[in-house]
Amino acid sequence: MKLAVVGATGLVGGEILKVLEERNLPITELIPVASERSVGQEITFKGNKFKVVSIDTAIAMQPEIAIFSAGGSTSLEQAPKFAAVGTTVIDNSSAWRMDVTKKLVVPEINAHTLTKEDKIIANPNCSTIQMVLALNPLHLKYKIKRVVVSTYQSVTGTGKKAVDQMMNERNGIDGAMAYPYKIDLNVIPHIDVFLENGYTKEEMKMVHETKKIMMDDTITVSPTAVRIPVMGGHSESVNVEFANEYDLEEVKKILANTSGLILVDDVKNLQYPMPKDAHGKDEVLVGRLRRDETQPKTLNMWIVADNLRKGAATNAIQIAEYLIAHKLVDVNAKLALA
């Protein structure tokens, strides 16, 4: 099986390569792809050296799967070209997420909707993925009416420039700014561009993507997305109103038994999810479960995940694993790359 990683030299691209190594997909040929200025560079994968190639070269090689993490404009232009030669594209940008002809997939929730005809598959926004993974099993049991969410998002969600900005500020170094303000020792309630309704694009992604992934347009979402000076994971404070009454102990059992989740909810021993504990993990951590005492049938929860892994790379690779396992891509190779 030939697998291309488009945007292989970026922050998420590097994480995709790392997770691919760990999960040992049956890859016989890795095709790292990046912009023209990176063509010819070498990357190491499973002890072997691979040269970065251009998009045109990668398309000509007709990989079975291409995982994109190269921005929306690149995805819009290039993903259809891969699809035209039979490649299944898993795209990490926002380009295809709300396209009604494309599936928006969190494998634990809706991978069963995928078919061989799905040649461009959208990977959801990082903050949406971790939230819906915790919400979906509760929705199936109690039916969610309304969600109020505030995010506390890592600088790694912006990219290397933002990480450099924060570390430069910590070390008293002048450098390029990824944000309009200082991020170290600060909190910026602004992620992506502001829209006419006063919400940001990041916030509205959570509104629309939640409905699409959970396949229920009746769920309402009221979001506030915030950038904080942290590396390693996104955190979310989530208030969930159900149509039906719930039992708190039953909620804990449901979440503890949900694939991809780890329940960390022992406040007596100061055990609750934190970004430093989510860093490097594929699972989403859930805790601080408590009843909202101001209105009925409402739950408060705290959700944390590594935004570069489950929020991006791992989710995309889990989609690839599902495609392979269910023979939705043609894979002849039986042995992983040595």
Relevant terms:
338 residues; alpha/beta; Rossmann fold; Dihydrodipicolinate Reductase, domain 2; 6-stranded mixed beta sheet; disordered C terminus
CATH topology of the largest domain: Dihydrodipicolinate Reductase, domain 2
How much helix, percentage-wise, in residues?
A: 25-40%
* Distance from first to last alpha carbon: 13 Å
What is the assembly state of the chains in this entry? single chain
Structural class: alpha/beta
Classified by CATH, the class of the largest domain is Alpha Beta
List the helices and strands in order: EHEEEHEHEEHEHEHHEEHEHEEH
- Assigned CATH superfamily of the largest domain: Dihydrodipicolinate Reductase, domain 2
How many alpha or pi helices?
A: 10
Number of distinct beta strands: 14
The average pLDDT is 95
What is the count of distinct domains? 2
What is the C-alpha radius of gyration, as a whole number of Å? 20 Å
- Approximately what portion of the residues adopt beta-strand conformation? 15-25%
**Sheet with the most strands, sense and barrel status:** 6 strands, parallel
- Strand arrangement, largest sheet? 2-1-5-6-8-7
Indicate the overall shape: globular
Unreliable sequence segments: 333-338
What's the short version?
The protein is α/β, with parallel strands linked by helices and 338 residues long. It has helices at residues 11-23, 55-60, 72-84, 107-110, 126-142, 160-170, 201-214, 248-256, 275-278, 309-325; strands at residues 2-6, 29-33, 42-45, 48-51, 65-68, 88-91, 103-104, 120-122, 144-152, 220-224, 234-242, 261-263, 284-291, 298-305. It has 10 helices and 14 strands.
